[in-house]
Amino acid sequence: FSHLQKKRRAATARRQHLKSAMLQLAATEIEKEAAAKEVEKQNYLSEHCPPLSLPGSMQELQELCKKLHAKIDSVDEERYDTEVKLQKTNKELEDLSQKLFDLRGKFKRPPLRRVRMSADAMLRALLGSKHKVCMDLRANLKQVKKEDTEKEKDLRDVGDWRKNIEEKSGMEGRKKMFEAGE
């Protein structure tokens, strides 16, 4: 029994060691990615944003402002274009996912209502004006004669139950019942 516990402890310890090693490896990878992103950002900024040197004269300063405004406008246009592209792509993605959802058949089906409809009306609804044949489903049924059973004969012989009750009600009825019992 203790042998199994030692095996379990060893397996658990190994699993914990592997888990901690994987977490350490992941942490170092995240740090490397962050450093690479920072380097990439610095390269992009040095390429696209040269260091600012303020000119001394007023006219040179105005020229610099005009250049900066032109750059701002071009960047805004680029940003607007990418936003529109993104919206269009998102809409296409949404449409495709809806099509996929519909193709899988996982859309919610509406609750069905029971509708009384004759066979003729059903065929007319399905076939439209092409439907000319009239279907009378009861026409082909076999006629069955009802045979009198003994129970039904007994019921007919007894007659109307109200008549029996009226005969047995009151003093006269009790007297008849008393005499019939003797």
Your description of this structure?
With 182 residues, this protein is mainly α. Among the domains are: 51 residues; 54 residues. 73% of the residues lie in helices and 0% in strands. It is built from 6 helices and no strands. The chain is elongated. The mean pLDDT is 80.
Tally the helices: what do you get? 6
Tell me what portion of residues adopts beta-strand conformation.
Answer: under 5%
**Large-scale geometry:** elongated
Question: Average pLDDT value?
Answer: 80
Distance between the termini: 93 Å
Portion of residues within helices: over 70%
Strand element count: 0
Coiled coil: 18-106
Family: Belongs to the troponin I family.
InterPro entries: Troponin, Troponin_I, Troponin_sf
Function: Troponin I is the inhibitory subunit of troponin, the thin filament regulatory complex which confers calcium-sensitivity to striated muscle actomyosin ATPase activity.
